[in-house]
Write a structure and sequence with these properties.
Length: 99
């Protein structure tokens, strides 16, 4: 399904409902740095997030070092932030809460 780029207003109000997510790169992406207790927890989070990404057919850019996972979400085909980025962000919040 073709995703439309969200307006800055919609992005800002959607971000207000998510803990710790920020607009990045002049509004092209949303990002969060997750911190876990151990590498095992961080990797379990990544496994669950990867399964959500496959279900949504929407994939994160991320970088893991030990207990930290830096996530950047953008919709490559739209060149900006779409509703899919927020659906994946919500799935990641749920996965992080389960750790
Ligand atoms: C062919 C496939 O549907 C596309 O390449 C999907 C896969 N995952 C994706 N993930 C993200 N973040 N942006 C995309 O544009 C995108 N496109």
């Amino acid at each position: 399904m073709k995703q439309d780029k969200l307006s800055t207003e919609v992005i800002t109000s959607s971000l207000a409902m998510l803990e710790g997510w920020k607009l990045e790169d002049d509004g092209v992406a949303i990002a969060k740095s997750f911190r876990f207790k151990t590498f095992a927890s961080a990797f379990a989070f990544m496994t669950e997030a990867a399964q959500a990404a496959e279900r949504l057919n929407h994939h994160p850019e991320w970088f893991n070092v030990y207990d930290k996972v830096d996530v950047r979400l953008t919709t490559h085909s739209a060149g900006g932030v779409t509703a899919l980025d927020f659906r994946l962000a919500e799935a990641m919040e749920k996965a992080a809460r389960a750790r």
